[in-house]
């Protein structure tokens, strides 16, 4: 509209002027007109883009509405039934509404859900490594009769293998729909079985002869493989090798015959831990006419869990994806672990430990091999180290510094040798007397001082003697013993 108005205006000016405009004025006028036109053109382009965006938005909304329709229908049905006051029906309605947000991890899961929107076989979005964590969802084919998930790729059609000479000279990377190998790995991990079929037509061009690989495929972990069928990674073979019907009985693959006649091999790779195929390499090809056809990566079922989960990875396989503290099976009892699922199956795990699964062990056992005497109260130092796990015991000063808050068990034993009446060994926490043992008869007595304390990180523990002699000698072996062990760690230190 504005274009028309502007042009008619221009005409009016030209006509009304009636005479030739001065050159300079004409030039400036042209520049101005051109600038105006550019502006208008930009505006029109802008409008076009906006229109297209709006159209796309409408299309996308239409699709969404179509997807929601069955859900809403179900919702309406259950709601009308809930008029008779059945509370279970009301729950059902809520579940149907929330199902609109349900993105299954596999087609198996979609089928198991029994939701109406997953009835028909077809293309669906799934998220094997977990919704809202790991990599984005992938678009796959679901066979809803079998519950099988098939991931397509860019090399499903038959592709010619050109002539080329060194081993592996022809190379074809396989690009999966969605592109995420992490999602493929996740899919395999949470499925019972996976397989991928391959067919190769050859006119010469052996796979593996006398242990030399001329052809191979690359697995999901970037390893070269030369088994073309079955699940035995260590065995170069094709389907004819497994069935013992290759063209030459001494070979495992027809193509290994390496003759200039058309032959073919096929295989069904079923080792799910190495699938899918990520690259194909062929070589030593002296004739045109060869080709390869690689099937979709297909997985079905779900693994059986005949065990209690013992790690965050187990929990992820079962389907947990919310970060948090979970109880799992430990070596001796149920333990708690903190799971961070934000990386999908590469879940981060932190053990919150008790007695046998401490995040870091703290234990010491030190001795004195000679007698220690003092005329004033003083800290007992030690000179024999049996154990000092965690390094918290300083033998020279005789001071144990608590490395982490928790409950500790200590034990002391030694032989008294009172000089003038009373001899006492005192257990101190932060210079404060907490416990003691005492001998007040002349002669030698065994003194014991076991105790359990809840201590905070940074607290110090030491044994002091009053005046007297703590007896020990090398001949009878060290007779003064001091041990300590962290029994139970405080999970949440303030
Ligand atoms: C589903 O899989 C079964 C078994 O492989 C097959 O017979 C059937 O044709 C498949 N259905 C569809 C719709 O792909
Ligand atoms: C490949 O193996 C899988 C699993 O054993 C099986 O379900 C599938 O039918 C096989 N496909 C072919 C073409 O043999």
Automatic annotation (TrEMBL):
Keywords for the protein's UniProt record, in alphabetical order: Coiled coil, Collagen, Secreted, Signal
Coiled-coil ranges per UniProt: 37-64
Keyword Secreted applies: yes
Localisation per UniProt entry: Secreted
Domain C1q: 357-493
Signal peptide: 1-17
Domain of life: Eukaryota
PANTHER family in UniProt: CEREBELLIN-RELATED, CVP18
Name listed for the protein in its UniProt record: C1q domain-containing protein
Organism: Daphnia magna
Lineage: Eukaryota, Metazoa, Ecdysozoa, Arthropoda, Crustacea
């Amino acid at each position: 509209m504005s274009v028309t108005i502007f042009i008619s205006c221009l005409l009016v000016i030209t006509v009304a002027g009636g005479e030739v405009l001065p050159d300079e004025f004409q030039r400036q006028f042209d520049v101005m007109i051109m600038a105006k036109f550019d502006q208008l053109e930009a505006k029109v382009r802008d409008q076009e883009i906006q229109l297209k965006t709006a159209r796309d938005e409408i299309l996308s909304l239409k699709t969404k509405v179509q997807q929601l329709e069955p859900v809403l229908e179900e919702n309406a049905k259950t709601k009308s039934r809930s008029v008779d006051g059945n509370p279970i029906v009301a729950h059902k309605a809520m579940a149907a509404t929330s199902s609109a947000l349900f993105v299954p991890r596999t087609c198996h899961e979609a089928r198991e859900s029994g939701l109406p929107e997953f009835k028909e076989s077809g293309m669906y979005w799934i998220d094997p490594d977990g919704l809202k964590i790991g990599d984005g969802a992938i678009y796959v084919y679901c066979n809803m009769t079998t519950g099988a998930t098939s991931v397509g790729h860019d090399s499903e059609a038959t592709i010619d293998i050109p002539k080329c000479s060194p081993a592996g000279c022809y190379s074809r990377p396989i690009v999966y729909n969605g592109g995420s190998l992490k999602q493929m790995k996740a899919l395999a991990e949470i499925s019972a079985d996976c397989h991928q079929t391959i067919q190769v037509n050859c006119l010469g061009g052996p796979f593996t002869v006398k242990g030399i690989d001329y052809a191979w495929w690359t697995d999901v972990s970037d390893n070269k493989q030369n088994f073309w069928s079955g699940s035995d990674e260590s065995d170069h073979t094709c389907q004819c090798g497994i069935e013992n019907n290759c063209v030459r009985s001494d070979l495992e693959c027809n193509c290994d015959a390496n003759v200039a006649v058309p032959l073919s091999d096929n295989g069904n790779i079923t080792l799910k831990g190495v699938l899918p195929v990520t690259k194909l390499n062929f070589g030593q090809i002296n004739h045109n006419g060869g080709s390869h056809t690689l099937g979709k990566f297909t997985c079905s079922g779900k693994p059986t869990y005949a065990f209690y989960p013992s790690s965050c990875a187990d929990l992820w396989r079962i389907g947990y994806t919310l970060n948090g503290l979970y109880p799992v099976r430990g070596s001796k009892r149920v333990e708690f672990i903190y799971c961070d699922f934000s990386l999908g199956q590469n879940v981060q795990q932190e053990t919150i430990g008790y007695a046998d699964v401490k995040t870091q062990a703290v234990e010491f056992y030190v001795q004195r091999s000679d007698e220690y005497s003092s005329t004033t109260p003083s800290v007992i130092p030690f000179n024999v180290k049996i154990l000092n796990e965690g390094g918290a015991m300083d033998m020279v000063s005789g001071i144990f510094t608590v490395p982490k808050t928790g409950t500790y068990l200590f034990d002391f034993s030694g032989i008294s040798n009172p000089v003038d009446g009373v001899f006492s060994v005192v257990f101190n926490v932060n210079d404060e007397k907490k416990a003691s043992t005492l001998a007040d008869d002349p002669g030698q007595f065994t003194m014991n001082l076991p105790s359990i304390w809840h201590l905070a990180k940074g607290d110090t523990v030491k044994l002091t003697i009053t005046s007297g002699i703590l007896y020990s000698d090398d001949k009878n072996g060290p007779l003064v013993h001091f041990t300590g062990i962290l029994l139970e760690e405080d999970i949440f230190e303030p």
